[in-house]
Amino acid sequence: MGTKFKKGILLAALMLAVPVLIGPANAKQSQAKQAAAGKDNLSIPVRRLLQKVRICMDKEDYSGAVAAIRESQKSKKKDGRLCSHPLVCLALGNSHLLLSDHARAESAYLAALDMDPEFMDARVNLAKVYTDTNQYAKAAKAFFGAYSLSSPKHPDYLYYSAVMHMMDQKTPLAIKHFDTLFAAHKDRVTRQWKENYANALMTAQRWKRAVPLVKDLIAGAQGKEKIKWQETLLQIYLTTNEMKRARDYATALCRQAPTVSKWWKALVHVNLSLGHYDKALDGLIIYGFLTPLSREEQKLFADLSLQLNIPRRAAGLYEALLAGARDRTGKKDKQLLQHLVTALRQTGKGDQALAALDRFAPKTCDPELLILKGDILYEAENYKAANAAYRMAAREKKCPRRGQAWLMAGYAAWQHNDLTASRQAFENAARFKGFRKDALAAIAQMERTKQM
């Protein structure tokens, strides 16, 4: 679980929260509202035009509605306006919007608002135009304007404004609107509001403020939705490095839903972070009962077993991983092989460790593996073969342990009484920092032995 997980959750939740906006306002309803507001100063030609437009709209003949309005306005364009009355502008904007002609719809709504800045329907539908065309900053401003004008206050407009600010990546503004929304409309709070408020807070990394909301969302959810928010809460604890709290929560989740594998996986992750490797291994075993382990998880299983002094189990796991590897010369496989050899040596099976090297890296020139092979041969008192392996490693210029390889070659050659080769190896080892003292001491010991 990491940042990728967190971003995925946030983005998904945000995309789901894009508001379902209202459709274009009905000119007849707007007319009634304006009449109620004392603004019904419609002339007879305007009334007739709106009636004609309404008939076209009822037939879904939006092009016909546009044509009717344009024809009627020809004689009234002396002042350069698209339309002569706010309701006519609204009807024109709605017709263009239903034809998906957003540019002309915007112009018509702006014309309506120029004549009547408090024209709510024009402002809301202008917000829809900006939402449809991904102009989130303008949409947020238009929705907030609609909220400010509404009486009584229409909280959905403030909510949409907050969401548009989120879409515009202006999270502080979104949070400011959410704060107002939740404070002023406590009795209207919906789950969707909470989800997006929580997302905004988490995007702004205001984790402490997000936690109560997330807990509330968990309490009110079921099934996959509940699991999603439980994961989110756990991720918050991990992100804020509250590891003990994360461990306690992951443990509680495992107890509450012991067959949900992801909780066991999370518990393994937390215990690894805390350095509780024995508990991590316990969790991984249960996780493995619930779901097949991936290759990386199998490797983790083997590594934990080796670290916790269970080499026999570790060896079996490494064997299986190496057997299933596609490229036995790859870097990862080399590490697996080194770990397998270590596990087998810990069980006292040096012969099997040597056989594993021969089986999985039969013609290796890798100096690390050659030194490992030399060590096993040396332990088995096969000094001549050990000397050969060490020398082969030491001659590799890229070998990071050439000094050690020459030193061990010297000891191995000495053990099988090849004193000339031994001295030469020690002299080579003496050229490497960190090995000079031991190499010179060995040479001195050899000289003393000769004189006896």
Integer average pLDDT: 88
What are the secondary-structure elements, in order, as H or E?
Answer: HHHHHHHHHHHHHHHHHHHHHHHHH
> What integer value in Å does the Rg equal?
38 Å
Distance between the termini: 67 Å
Helix content: over 70%
**Helix count, DSSP H or I runs of 4 or more residues:** 25
The residue ranges in which pLDDT falls below 50 over 5 or more consecutive positions are 1-28
What general outline do the C-alpha atoms trace? elongated
Class of secondary structure makeup: mainly alpha
> Beta-strand percentage?
under 5%
Number of strands: 0
Outline the biggest β-sheet: none
Question: What would you say about this model in short?
Answer:
By secondary structure, this protein is mainly α. The protein contains 25 helices and no strands.
Task: Report what the structure shows.
The protein is an all-alpha fold and 452 residues long. It is built from 25 helices and no strands. The protein has helices at 3-16, 27-36, 44-58, 62-73, 86-98, 102-115, 120-132, 136-149, 155-167, 171-184, 191-203, 207-219, 223-239, 243-256, 261-274, 277-290, 295-307, 311-323, 331-346, 350-360, 367-379, 383-394, 402-415, 419-429, 436-451. It is elongated, with a radius of gyration of 38 Å. The two termini are 67 Å apart.
